[in-house]
Amino acid sequence: MLPARPTRAGVLVLLAGLLGALSPVTAAHAADRAVAGGRLDWGLKSSFQRYVTGPIAQGSWSLRQGAATVGESQFRLHSAKGSYDPDSGSFSAVFSGGVHFVGHRKPSGTYELDLSLSRLTVRTPGDGTGTLYADMVSRAKGTGKVTSASQVPLASLYLSRVNMRGGGTAVVLQSIPATLTARGAQAFAGYYPAGTPLDPLNLSADIAPGATGDNGDKGGKPDRNKPEDGAKSGDEAGDKDGDKPRNGDEADPAGGAARIEDAAVDWGVRRTFREYVTGPIAKGRWKLTDGARDGGALFRFPAGKGDYDRRTGALDATFAGRTHFSGARLDLALSGVRVKVADGRGTLAADVTTDGTTRRGVPLVTFDATALKAPAAKDGLVTVAEAPTKLTRQGAEAFGGMYRAGTAMDPLSLAVATDADANLSPLPDLGSEPAATPSPEPSATAVAAPADSDGGQAADDSAGPSTPALVTGGAALLAAVAAATVLVVRRRRTAEATTLTDTDGAPAGG
Question: pTM here?
Answer without folding.
Answer: 0.67
